[in-house]
Amino acid sequence: MIRVRPERFPPGTLRKLHAKGIGPFRIITKISPNAYTLELPDDYGVSNTFNISDLVAYKEPVEIPSEPFEPESPPLVSEPLPECPQACFKKASEQIEKIIDDKITNTRNKQYRKYLVHWKDRLNEDDTWISREELHRLNLEHLKTTR
């Protein structure tokens, strides 16, 4: 079964179905690799030969159960979430090993300096951009040695 794209029909024809496409229709013959003849009702008033670009595969409608809120399968058992690896957390007690880079971020009204820091006893993947204020709170001596 196939649907016909609504753009294929002239404006004003079959207006009610224009938004979604018309059909489904049975394919009668394949005229060429890009032309097909469909089984259309006589009152449509258009040729029953269509270019493949005007056709859309028909999908059966999804059946909605009469009681959608009745559980058909056993309820899901909630499992505890796995623990987040330590790399997810940045505690104020963590120490900065070194400042790798810095950059200035522009906003409409202001410029902000950010620092790329490497955390002590952490992988390079855990390097983080932090604000000047956060750097100041975590490690005052690194702030004094940068620009």
UniProtKB/TrEMBL annotation:
Database matches in InterPro entries: Chromo-like_dom_sf (IPR016197), Chromo/chromo_shadow_dom (IPR000953), Chromo_domain (IPR023780), SH3_Tf2-1 (IPR056924)
TM spans (from-to): none
Signal peptide: none
Pfam families in UniProt: Chromo, SH3_Tf2-1
Domain Chromo, first and last residues per copy: 94-147
Top-rank lineage group of the source organism: Eukaryota
Full protein name: Chromo domain-containing protein
Species name: Vanilla planifolia (Vanilla)
Lineage per the UniProt record: Eukaryota, Viridiplantae, Streptophyta, Embryophyta, Tracheophyta
